[in-house]
Amino acid sequence: MSFLNYFYIKTLKFDLINKFYYTNLKKLPDLKHIVLNFSCKTVELKTIVTHLLALKLITYQKGTISVSKRSNLLLKIRKGNPTGCKVTLRKTLLMNFLCKSFNEILPKIKNFDKIKVHQKVEKNAFSFSIKDTLTFPELAEHYYLFNNLSNLNLSFVTTTKTKKEMLFLLKSLQLPLKF
């Protein structure tokens, strides 16, 4: 069991019960899944494959290619063309990725103060991006392949009902947030 999972079961559940009012204890807020997403500016096969390989090395899980649902003349994108790739992490892979990012990735980012929280925080989702993707040790080993990666977008999806619950859950998970 991951130390974050143990922390959620033993400590965070009691904090949530004391802070907020719940009629059913089975409906306590939880982190449902994390979506890691690379968006590609070009439709070249080489860039999409490198982004998929980077996601595979980071998460140890296969990624899927995102395709455009409709054409956009300004961006010169046709309907059905690939626009990026994504991976959804759940349960044990989610906890392993969080442990890895807290202990290895976030401390290595240069000039990292805190994650900036904008007013766009929804009641059950929170997202930010990592600009320097080479802080992941798996990608740094193969610099020649991954030196042109775009930003990695991370989206945390929870089962919270209000914005206050969402921010309390993220703060108690020790995410370095800046308001």
TrEMBL record:
GO molecular function: structural constituent of ribosome
Ribonucleoprotein as UniProt keyword: yes
Keyword annotations of the record: Mitochondrion, Ribonucleoprotein, Ribosomal protein
Family, similarity comment: Belongs to the universal ribosomal protein uL5 family.
GO cellular component, one term: ribosome
Name listed for the protein in its UniProt record: Ribosomal protein L5
Any single GO BP term: translation
Annotated transmembrane regions: none
Top-level taxon in the UniProt lineage: Eukaryota
Species: Halamphora calidilacuna
Gene (name only): rpl5
Domain Large ribosomal subunit protein uL5 C-terminal: start-end pairs: 82-176
Keyword Lipid metabolism: no
Any Pfam family: Ribosomal_L5_C
Classification via InterPro entries: Ribosomal_uL5, Ribosomal_uL5_C, Ribosomal_uL5_dom_sf
